[in-house]
Write a structure and sequence with these properties.
The protein is mainly alpha-helical. The chain is built from six helices and no strands. Helix content is about 70%, strand content about 0%.
């Protein structure tokens, strides 16, 4: 999902530090959950009003940094596993179209097996 130029910069950053040895799929998958949790922590226990205020303040940078961390780790994982993220997302979207037909899923947050 990141551009080729951004992916190149990420790979160069990692290579210069010799971090490929640490970036095994299991470790990247674990790091992805940690980074996603750090993003969640920014919003935890905040009301919608508090979130709006946070996003319109200098604290917005914390959200941007955590989103970037998630994207960076996911980008490394997809690169290393030779996954075309756009193709994977479109494939999953097609599967979700079947699992969540519009006539059953419109205006509800129920999981597919509860529809």
């Amino acid at each position: 999902m990141v551009s080729e130029a951004v992916m190149g910069a990420l790979l160069e950053f990692r290579h210069k530090r010799n971090w490929e040895q640490f970036h095994r799929p299991k470790e990247l998958a674990g790091a992805l959950t940690i980074e996603a949790s750090e993003l969640q922590e920014v919003f935890q226990w905040k009301t919608d009003e508090e979130v709006r205020a946070l996003l319109s303040s200098s604290s917005r940078e914390k959200v941007l940094d955590e989103v970037a961390d998630v994207a960076i780790v996911l980008s490394y994982l997809c690169h290393d596993l030779n996954i075309d993220l756009n193709a994977a997302v479109l494939s999953k979207l097609q599967k979700n179209e079947v699992k969540y037909p519009l006539c059953k899923s419109y205006d509800t947050a129920k999981k597919y097996d509860e529809l």
